[in-house]
Structure formats: C-alpha cells, structure tokens
Design brief:
mainly alpha; 1 helix; YlqD
Length: 48
Amino acid sequence: MKLIQKVVIMQVLTEQSKSELIHYYTKQKRLLETEMEQLLFEEKKSHA
C-alpha cells in the first residue's frame, strides 16, 4: 500500500469520547436555542 499523504491526528475517536462529544454539543445546541428564543422574544417586544 502506498502512502498518499501524512496527516496529524488531533483526536482519536472512541465510543467514550464520541458519547462525550455528542453530549457536549447537544447541550451547547440547547443553550443556543434557548438564547435564540430569548432574543426573538425581545425583538418582538421591542417592535410592539
């Protein structure tokens, strides 16, 4: 097999780390969605 390109491995993805990443990004998404709802509410309130 021929080496095509060398790459730097930043993180090895295991089942454990995959689960932690999913948990982290799900939590971040929830926080951002809450913030977005709050901003939309404030925007509606200021236009009323």
